[in-house]
TrEMBL record:
Designated name of the protein: Noncanonical pyrimidine nucleotidase, YjjG family
CDD domains on file: HAD_Neu5Ac-Pase_like (cd04305)
Superkingdom as given in the UniProt entry: Bacteria
Organism: Flagellimonas algicola
Pfam families assigned to the protein according to its UniProt record, in alphabetical order: Hydrolase (PF00702)
């Protein structure tokens, strides 16, 4: 399936190993309740999830700052559902969301089983656009930090996936060539196409029920990796 021998596997974290949407929902359930903001959680999340993805794309493209991302995704969601929430409350919620998000530790099914299977055979690493202080807490909280030799984040690299520089930094840290490396991630644009441009082999984890494509192999469950590698 892969044209070159693979020695190193680079994983995305959110939406690939760490179940972002589930943990995010639990975080909002907690902080909305604590702040006595009475909105229907399901209705809130239905609007928030696509807005968050849109704002992450803007952030990835350096069109907004981290502060704008954290504020605007909440502001737009509350406006869309007709909830009158003050800027002060939005700022507080944005802060509490970051504080509590990494305390929830749900992983995608079979994550630990697959990492246990891969770790004796390959060098494993993380490349993430997430914020450094939170990603480290996520890995440790979910007890999977021990599997990864290097964790490369966009704040450390100074650029975000799909920029080639973050992938080159990852290769330099791991001391491996791109042709012997595999990138596994959920984002076709950031993870897959970004890695391909640098020469990685790639595997698309279809976490968002996207249409089939021929860009690279695609899996719908992490356990399928055991049948490939």
């Amino acid at each position: 399936m892969f044209k070159n021998h693979i020695t190193d596997i680079f994983f995305d974290l959110d939406h690939t190993l760490w179940d972002f949407e589930r943990n995010s929902a639990l975080t909002f359930e907690k902080i909305l309740d604590q702040n006595e903001i009475h909105v229907n959680l399901d209705s809130f999340l239905k609007v928030y999830v696509p807005i968050n993805l849109d704002y992450w794309k803007l952030y990835r493209e350096d069109r907004i700052t981290k502060a704008e991302l954290r504020y605007q995704r909440l502001k737009k969601t509350f406006d869309a559902i007709g909830a009158q929430i003050s800027d002060g409350h939005i700022d507080l919620l944005a802060q509490e969301y970051i504080q509590h998000l990494s305390t929830f530790t749900h992983l995608f099914p079979d994550t630990v089983e697959v990492l246990e299977y891969l770790s004796p055979k390959y060098n494993l690493h993380i490349i993430t656009n997430g914020f450094q202080e939170i990603q480290e807490k996520k890995l440790k909280g979910a007890n999977i930090d021990r599997y990864f030799e290097h964790v490369i984040n966009s704040e450390d690299a100074g650029v975000k996936k799909p920029h080639p520089q973050i992938f080159h930094l990852a290769l330099d840290r791991a001391k491996v060539s791109a042709e012997n490396s595999l990138m596994v991630g959920d984002s076709l644009e950031a993870d897959i196409q970004g890695a391909i441009a640098v020469g990685f082999q790639t595997l698309h984890f279809n976490a968002h029920n996207e249409a089939n494509h021929k860009i690279c192999p695609m899996i719908n469950n992490l356990s399928e990796i055991k049948g490939i590698l």
